[in-house]
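Entry:
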Amino acid sequence: MHNSNALPDLSGRRVVVPGGTGAVGEGVVRSYLAAGADVVVPTRTQERAEEFRRVLGDAATDHLHLVVHDYTTFAGAEQLAEEMERRLGGVDDVVAPIGGWWAGKRLWEIDESDWQNAFVGLAAAHVAVLRAFLPRLDARGAYTLIVGASAFTPVPGSGLVSMEQAALLMMRQVVEAEVAGRQRVFALVLGPVRTRLADSGDPDWVSAEQVGAVAVAASASAAVDGLEIRLRSRAEADEALAVLQGDRPARTGEVVAASTMEPGNGRREDLLEVLAELAPQIRAEPGCLHYSVHRPHGGGDGPLLVIQRFASIEAFTEHSASVADQIPRIAALLATPPMPPTLFEPVL
């Protein structure tokens, strides 16, 4: 059974969990209900809603709100958000364990149906929910994505899922930079999870309710603005809870950002002038450890390489927000649209 005494009190908190009827989502819903929150779980059919209530058993208190609704389109997600405002007066947090699995083909073997279902469909559902609910969250509300470790570990034969999950992690980074602290944006990146439907007996796997406990801690946390949290083992789950509860600082480590810029025809010197102008501002930012611009060895008119080093991913995210208004100015001087920098972290 879930130990509600270990959870913070979220009484009065209004939480929407799209994908909550899934195996991992069930653990999230149980945790928020145990913490006293009002939990909205959309599902596509009344039969599925009734089955989920039976699965929850005694955990399905009056704080559970099952809504028959298709949230996977832009219009559907917007209608759901409007309905929640009417029913509950607003939304405080969203936890999105929206997902599915696809396997069996190498990337050059996929057809258009595979692409639409395994990449476009899943990514569109996440974007639909985010665009509908994020602007409606109360100040300092938490938006939490739940994805799998395939986001950074390529899975042969399931490449579309790996690509879609990686895209969601970048979406989190972009949204965090864009909200600039008005809301908090988290990602829980899962390894194997013990659920009601899949329990290998491996004691090192996190359980669905442990995933839920971390999501609840993220909602309640006053210590952390937003974070990508990896939950590939019980030890990582314990570490995440300690960080979110303010008992331990996040250990993100240094981050190196590398960007390649191809100057447009005749715009090389203009680009160098802009980068030189920005250098003092960037170097003065808290957390900036290094900023330099490089040209190809031996000179020539090749691309420029910008190397930046920051004390943490949080410092880099703050930097990204501070220079966002300069991107159009730089883009106008490039031969091709600017690409997000490649991020590196220490190995040794």
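Residues 112-133 form the longest helix (22 residues).
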